[in-house]
Structures are given as structure tokens and as C-alpha cells.
Amino acid sequence: MPNCNCDNKQQRVFNGLGYNAAPSAPSLEININQNNPSPCQSSIDGYTPTPISSPITKSIRRPPNEPPPPPPSAPFLENEYSTPSYLINDNKRREGWRQIGRNASIRAVKAGEAIRNKFNNERNWAIFKLSLCELLFSTILLSLGIVCVCKTKEFCPYYSAIWTSIIFILNSFIGLITSKTNFVDHYITHLILSLISIVLTFVGGTISLINWQLIGTYKQNNERGRQLINPKADEEQMYRAFCLLGEHDSRRISYIYSHMNEYNFRECLIGVKIGIAVNSLQFLITALLGILFLVSIVLCLFRICTKYVGEDNKK
């Protein structure tokens, strides 16, 4: 059996020899919640503990959690994402121009409807549009003739673009008046002027074609070539377009070589270009005006025949 001495040490004897026992680990016992038994122990003992509620405990309880308050607004972040003032001004300016364009288009449409309502029928409206087109092209032809006379008189000596365009403009104004008044006498006048205008388109187109072909050419025969355009021209006027040679001519080359210091080649070249352009455009515009005058003649004849046939049926 073990013996206990005053030092509280246990000794053991084996085969007559004594030895000390191995030291034991210290024990630590902790009791938590001794007053309230655990649920497991309570269930073993046969009862379930009930929570003890008191008014003091109820008053200490907190209300349910609420959503956190929103973060404070940062003024510098709002200003950072705001539209700059110059962009706002540009947008306002562009919107103003767009509104002006919309208003102008609306006014144009209303004006066109008001003008169209003033005409009696669709044929008068067609004559009105034809007369406007004739007036436009006749004005262009007149301006081309004036430019040719002022800049390069030798390339359009007959002034065909001027006096033919004056007749065309007069016919256009008669057509506008006819479309508004709807009188038979005005239709007859417009018909006669349209017939005269068609003849003048053939004359003007032929003259412009001859002028275009004779630019840069010269014949020594007085009855042909440049003499056909300007019979009163002297020898110096015949060589006016000295910067352009349509064919080899020793006499003309010698004249240009002997008088080359007296003329401006750059001005001559510009005059040749203007002469070619004016005569080409005159030919094209007269051809187009001839087609428009032909349509006007058809409309006038239809209107006149309808007027007289309607009166005969009434009788």
C-alpha cells in the first residue's frame, strides 16, 4: 500500500524496494450556468425549462433593426456630372435653328397650298408650273448672253442669247397671267407666243451651234468661217482668238508670232473658255425650252378646245 509522508508524496514498494509514483496532472473543474441546468440535463430530469421574463428584461430589449440612413450627399459629385453651360448654349442654338427651319418649311407648304387653291383646276396649275420653269431658264439664258457680250463679244456677235431670251420671258409672264385669269383670250395669246418661241429656239440653237464650231477656226475666204459670224471684222479682229489654233495655218502663225507682244495670252484663253461654255449652255437651254413650249402649246389647245366644245354643247 502506498505510504503518505508529510510531504504529501506517495511511495510504493515493489520487491522490497520503494519508489515514488509518477506525478499526476492537475485537474481543473469549471461549472458554468450552475443555477440554470442545460437543456439536455433538464430533458433527462423530465422537465423543460421555461424562459423567465420580467418587465425589466422587456424594457431592455432593442427594436428591430432598421435600414441604415442614406449617405450624405456630396455637392462636388453632383457638379461633376452636370452638363457644362457651353454645351447647353450650343444645344439651345441648334434647336433654335431647327425650329426656324421647321417654321420656314411649314410656311412654304402653306403658301404653296394657298397659291394652288387660287387656281380653278389642275390644268391651270400645270400651266403655272410650266411658266415658272420657262421664266427660270429664260433668265439664265439672258444672263449668259450678257456675260458673253461683256467678256467675249467675238464669240457671240449676233446676240442671239439676249433677244431670244427676252421673247421667252415675255411668253412666261403671259403664261403666269393666263393660269390665274383662266380667260380664253389669254390662252390664245400664250399659244401664239409659244409657237413663236419654238421657232426662236431653233434659230438660237442653230446660231449657238455655229458659233461653237467656229471657235478657233479661220478661213481666208470672206464668205465662210469667221466672216459668217462677224462680216464687218477686219483682219486684226479675225485673229482675235490668237491663243487657239484649230488647224495649221502659216499665215495665222506668222501673224501671232509678229504680234505676240501686243496681246495677253491668259486673257485670250479665258475668253475662249467663256465662249465655249456660253454657246454650249445656250444650245442645251434652248433645246429644253423648246420642249417646255411644246407642252404649253398642247395644254393651251386642250383648254381652248374644251372651252368652245362646252359652249357648243350648252347651245
TrEMBL record:
Record field: transmembrane: 126-146, 158-179, 191-215, 283-305
Record flagged with keyword Transmembrane helix: yes
Regions of compositional bias (Polar residues) in chain numbering: 33-57
InterPro entries hit by this protein: CD20-like
Pfam families per record: CD20
This protein's UniProt keywords: Membrane, Transmembrane, Transmembrane helix
Subcellular location as annotated: Membrane
Pro residues bias spans: 65-74
Chain positions covered by the region annotation Disordered: 33-77
CC per GO annotation: membrane
Principal place of residence: membrane
Membrane topology: Multi-pass membrane protein
Identification of the protein by name: Uncharacterized protein
Organism of derivation: Meloidogyne enterolobii
